[in-house]
């Protein structure tokens, strides 16, 4: 039976409950939606990056799609089902007759709950994004290592493929000079990081990842961020560095004008995964992801039914190309330290100012609380006993924090240090760290009336800090010595405090550039 006949009969509801399902067509699949199920049929096509031409191949890839996606979305991916031709001439799912086609059977979910739509509607929040970052970090930690020693060969062909693809769309909308400039910058970045790319491959950082980790492939299911639609048809697309996998999501958030969520994802991911040495690759990886989006979107522009649709898609493709170039711009990093007693809003302000740094997705936040929790094998929000705050543990926390700050600054990323900094020696150490790395330093001491601080600390829930009102009272009684950093009153409004700090940092950026 020809595939088009199978598709036509399924579209009328045969084997799918009798009622005509909703139908969605793409260039490689047809999806049929019933009340509670989605059935994805793979088109009998052979392209440069996939081969679904034979029935046996389609069975293989349907089964692979189920296995691969059950790693992250077992509640969605149910089974690979045969479409069988029964003795009476009818079609059935997993019937007794001969298989004439295969489909991926999935539980249907609310497509209004995909993260691209939640982001567009303003329904995303920090809690959801943190939970998503936790899911990705857990997924990457459990993913199988590929066992390659050549990290360069995983990303280098992407540049040349991208150039070839984009050249097909010169003037629609790309300029040849822009394509060449981007490709040259990406090649230079790969050359500069060859040792790191290969070293990460040799260290097992190349794993069987998702491969297509953007906002449309994440949905909210039962209140939980759920990753779906991983690539099953190409090892070259899915056997990649874990940070290259993550970079798609970071870039997509930035493209959607949600750089604050991109920054939150990166920083939360780093709390769980020791990937600080891989940070120099983030600009390259994001640039490659944006370039891929650029040529895919340009191709889609040529398939639009209206001139307005074509213009819109071409504008978006051009925006991706500009983003791909911007991702590789590396201004001088800066070290910013936020100090103050518990309740002064350090962590809130750190999250607000970090996305404003370049390169995207912004500064790395180093908070002493998650570092301490990690030393004891605890999650960031788990509480520690008072014994975990002994002087010898403090020394380990501070050593780790400043060591990481130096590493991150040398990678080209700015750092925001978030801790009380009550000890003058720690404040001096922060300044010495910036000087040792040859980067500008900005220190801010946050303060507010004691009654405001007590109220804030008492109201905390699900926070990384273990500080109680008793701890705060001890801090207030002990003091912090003479403060040489710029003082910022956070009692009236954290929003105004953020604006003041951001303005001060921006002025310093301009001074550095001048």
Question: Could you explain how this protein is built, in words?
Answer:
With 514 residues, the protein is α/β, with parallel strands linked by helices. The chain has 3 domains: 3-108, no CATH class; 115-326, Aminoglycoside 3'-phosphotransferase, Chain: A, domain 2; 335-513, Rossmann fold (3-Layer(aba) Sandwich). It is 49% helix and 15% strand. It is built from 19 helices and 15 strands. The chain has helices at 3-11, 55-69, 115-121, 126-142, 152-167, 176-192, 194-202, 235-238, 242-255, 259-272, 282-301, 307-326, 346-353, 368-375, 391-410, 424-437, 450-458, 469-478, 494-513, and strands spanning 22-25, 29-33, 37-42, 77-85, 91-93, 98-107, 206-208, 218-221, 224-227, 239-241, 335-339, 364-367, 415-418, 441-447, 486-489. The strands form 4 sheets. It has a 6-stranded antiparallel sheet. Helix 9 packs antiparallel against helix 10 (259-272) and helix 9 packs across helix 11. The protein starts with a helix and ends with a helix.
Topology, pairings included?
Blueprint: H1 3-11, E1 22-25, E2 29-33, E3 37-42, H2 55-69, E4 77-85, E5 91-93, E6 98-107, H3 115-121, H4 126-142, H5 152-167, H6 176-192, H7 194-202, E7 206-208, E8 218-221, E9 224-227, H8 235-238, E10 239-241, H9 242-255, H10 259-272, H11 282-301, H12 307-326, E11 335-339, H13 346-353, E12 364-367, H14 368-375, H15 391-410, E13 415-418, H16 424-437, E14 441-447, H17 450-458, H18 469-478, E15 486-489, H19 494-513
Parallel strand pairs: 11-13, 11-14, 12-13, 14-15
Antiparallel strand pairs: 1-2, 2-3, 3-6, 4-5, 4-6, 7-10, 8-9
């Amino acid at each position: 039976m020809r595939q088009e006949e199978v598709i036509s009969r399924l579209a009328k509801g045969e084997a799918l409950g009798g009622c005509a399902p909703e139908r969605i067509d793409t260039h490689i699949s047809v999806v049929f939606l019933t009340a509670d199920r989605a059935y994805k049929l793979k088109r009998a096509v052979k392209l440069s990056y996939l081969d679904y031409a034979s029935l046996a191949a389609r069975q293989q890839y349907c089964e692979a799609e189920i296995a691969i996606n059950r790693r992250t979305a077992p509640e969605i991916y149910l089974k690979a089902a045969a479409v069988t031709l029964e003795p009476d001439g009818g079609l059935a799912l997993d019937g007794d007759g001969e298989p004439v086609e295969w489909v991926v059977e999935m539980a249907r979910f609310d497509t209004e709950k995909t993260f691209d739509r939640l982001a567009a509607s303003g329904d995303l929040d920090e809690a959801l994004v943190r939970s998503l970052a936790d899911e990705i970090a857990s997924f990457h930690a459990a993913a199988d290592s590929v066992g390659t020693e050549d990290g360069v060969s995983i990303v280098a062909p992407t540049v040349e493929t991208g150039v070839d693809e984009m050249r097909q769309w010169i003037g629609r909308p790309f300029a040849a000079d822009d394509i060449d400039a981007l490709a040259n910058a990406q090649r230079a970045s790969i050359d500069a990081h060859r040792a790191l790319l290969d070293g990460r491959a040799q260290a097992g950082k190349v794993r069987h990842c998702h491969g297509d980790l953007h906002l449309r492939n994440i949905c909210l299911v039962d209140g939980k961020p759920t990753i779906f639609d991983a690539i099953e048809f190409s090892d070259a697309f899915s056997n990649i560095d874990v940070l290259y996998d993550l970079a798609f999501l970071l870039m997509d958030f930035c493209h959607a004008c949600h750089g604050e969520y991109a920054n939150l994802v990166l920083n939360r991911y780093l709390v769980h995964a020791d990937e600080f040495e891989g940070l120099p690759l983030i600009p390259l990886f994001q640039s490659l992801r944006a370039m891929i989006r650029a040529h895919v979107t340009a191709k889609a522009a040529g398939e639009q039914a209206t001139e307005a649709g074509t213009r819109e898609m071409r504008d978006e493709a051009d925006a991706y190309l500009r983003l791909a170039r911007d991702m590789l711009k590396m201004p001088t990093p800066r070290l910013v330290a936020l100090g103050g007693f518990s309740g002064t809003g350090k962590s809130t302000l750190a999250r607000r100012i970090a996305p404003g740094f370049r390169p995207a997705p912004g500064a790395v936040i180093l908070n002493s609380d998650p570092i301490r929790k990690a030393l004891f094998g605890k999650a960031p929000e788990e509480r520690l006993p008072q014994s975990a705050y002994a002087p010898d543990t403090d020394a380990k926390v501070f050593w780790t924090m400043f060591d990481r700050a130096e590493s991150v600054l040398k990678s080209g990323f700015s750092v925001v240090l978030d801790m009380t900094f009550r000890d003058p020696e720690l404040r001096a150490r922060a300044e010495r760290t910036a000087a040792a790395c040859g980067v500008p330093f900005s220190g801010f001491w946050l303060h507010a009336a004691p009654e405001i601080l007590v109220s804030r600390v008492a109201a905390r829930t699900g926070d990384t800090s273990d500080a109680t009102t008793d701890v705060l009272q001890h801090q207030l009684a002990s003091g912090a010595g003479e403060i040489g950093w710029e003082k910022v009153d956070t009692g009236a409004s954290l929003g105004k405090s953020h604006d003041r700090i951001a303005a001060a940092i921006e002025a310093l950026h301009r001074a550095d550039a001048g």
